[in-house]
Amino acid sequence: MKILLIGATGMIGSRVAAEARARGHEVTGTTRRGAGGTARLDAADAGAVAALAAGHDAVVLAVSPPRDGSEPAAPLLAAGRGVLEGLRGAGVRRLVVVGGAGSLEVAPGARLVDTPGFPAIYKNESLAQAELLQVIRAEAGDLDWTYVSPAAEIAPGERTGTFRTGGDRLLTDAAGDSRISAEDYAVALVDELEKPQAVGRRITVAY
Question: What global pTM score does this model have?
Answer without folding.
Answer: 0.96
